[in-house]
């Protein structure tokens, strides 16, 4: 069962318990038991993340803020509000996870260029092995319809290579002995014998996949600013909430419970979760959306630069067309 599916089941179960607890004429003890059960179903993972993060020195994050705010609300007797806040937060987390998963699938679909095996010529004949196991200087055989697993130089054979997944060029590239070939291309016609010139870790396809997998590390200026902002903003919010809960009652003589409730409300309202999550998620969703349309963007910094683009120049029609031909009439 996938993580998202488990979360959906938990949300429905918690929502059902919440509605039943609200609707039934239960005693105060019964109401408390119902809300605690609901909170345990929907919020146990957030509390666990907050505790483990604190043990690792990461105190001020969204898990800590949500735990403090909701547990504080429960202690003040606002059971329904505390559970509702955690329930809505988990719904938001589910949508975020779904968006990220969808973007990852789009990127993976676009970059489905990793070869599954390589046919290596050895003493006991041609052996199919993982591309990682092929050494520089060995000879591999690529049959028609197979993907070139490693960079190298053609020793024997002539063929046409489909390089569209790497270069966007729709026209097949004709190759012959002595020509250099790069991994990730599809051999279309003849059988080729290729002398491997680079290990798989340094091949073209491995470098491209590495760029895609680490696209999120290339942050835009907006993401970098939000990260720095949250580093200082979150502790400041927590300190302000503590001061709000303590100072007014000491100065005015009002009950602490009133101001603790206001401090928790301030904590929830001021939580930077939406701001910290939405900016990186927007960029990642943009990269995933572009991948679904067949456009590979290697990082959010490039996506931000594209937003300011006014003129685009293409050097060949193959970049703009798919090169998929069909008979329209006869």
Shape label: elongated
Radius of gyration: 29 Å
Spatial strand arrangement across the major sheet: 2-1-3-9-4-7
- Uncertain spans, ≥5 residues at pLDDT below 50? none
User: How can the largest sheet be summarized?
Assistant: 6 strands, antiparallel
Number of strands: 9
Q: Helicity level, as a percent range?
A: 55-70%
Mean pLDDT rating? 81
Structural class: alpha+beta
Number of helices: 10
Strand content: 5-15%
Task: Explain what you see.
The chain is α+β, with helices and mostly antiparallel strands and about 325 residues long. The chain contains ten helices and nine strands. The protein has a six-stranded antiparallel beta sheet with strand order 2-1-3-9-4-7, with no helix packed on it. Strands 6-5-8 form a three-stranded antiparallel beta sheet, with no helix packed on it. Strand 1 (about 120) and strand 2 (about 125-130) form a beta hairpin. Helix 1 (about 5-25) packs antiparallel against helix 4 (about 80-110), helix 3 packs antiparallel against helix 8 and helix 4 packs parallel to helix 9 (about 275-290). The two termini are about 50 Å apart.
Features:
330 residues, alpha+beta, three-stranded antiparallel beta sheet, 10 helices, 55% helix, elongated
Question: TL;DR?
Answer:
The chain is an alpha+beta fold. It is built from 10 helices and 9 strands. Helix content is 55%, strand content 11%.
How do the strands and helices of this protein lay out in sequence?
Elements: H1 3-23, H2 28-55, H3 62-75, H4 79-110, E1 118-122, E2 125-129, E3 139-142, E4 152-156, E5 159-162, H5 164-167, E6 173-175, E7 180-181, E8 186-187, E9 192-196, H6 204-213, H7 221-252, H8 256-270, H9 273-292, H10 300-306
Antiparallel strand pairs: 1-2, 1-3, 3-9, 4-7, 4-9, 5-6, 5-8
């Amino acid at each position: 069962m996938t993580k998202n599916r488990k979360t959906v089941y938990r949300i429905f179960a918690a929502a059902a318990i919440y509605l039943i607890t609200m609707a039934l004429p239960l005693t105060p003890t019964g109401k408390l038991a119902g809300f605690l059960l609901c909170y345990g179903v929907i919020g146990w993972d957030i509390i666990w993340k907050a505790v483990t993060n604190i043990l690792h020195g990461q105190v001020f994050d969204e898990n800590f803020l949500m735990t403090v705010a909701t547990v504080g609300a429960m202690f003040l007797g606002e059971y329904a509000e505390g559970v509702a806040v955690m329930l809505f937060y988990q719904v938001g987390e589910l949508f975020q996870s779904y968006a990220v998963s969808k973007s990852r699938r789009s990127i993976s679909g676009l970059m489905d260029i990793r070869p599954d095996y390589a046919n290596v010529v050895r003493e006991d004949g041609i052996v199919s092995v993982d591309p990682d196991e092929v050494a520089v200087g060995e000879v591999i055989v690529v049959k028609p319809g197979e993907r070139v697993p490693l960079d190298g130089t053609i020793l024997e054979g002539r063929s046409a290579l489909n390089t569209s997944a790497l270069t966007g060029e729709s026209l097949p590239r004709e190759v012959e002995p002595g020509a250099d070939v790069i991994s990730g291309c599809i051999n279309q016609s003849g059988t080729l014998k290729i002398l491997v010139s680079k290990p798989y870790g340094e091949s073209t396809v491995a470098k491209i996949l590495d760029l895609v997998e680490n696209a999120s590390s290339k942050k835009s200026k907006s993401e970098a600013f939000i990260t720095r902002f949250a580093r200082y903003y979150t502790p400041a919010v927590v300190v302000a909430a503590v001061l709000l809960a303590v100072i007014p009652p000491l100065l005015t003589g009002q009950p602490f419970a009133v101001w603790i409730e206001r401090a928790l409300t301030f904590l929830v309202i001021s939580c930077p979760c939406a701001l910290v999550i939405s900016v990186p998620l927007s960029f990642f969703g943009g990269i995933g959306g572009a991948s679904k349309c067949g456009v590979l963007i290697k990082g959010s910094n490039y996506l931000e630069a594209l937003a300011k683009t006014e003129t685009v120049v293409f050097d060949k029609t193959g970049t703009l067309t798919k090169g998929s031909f069909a008979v329209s009439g006869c």
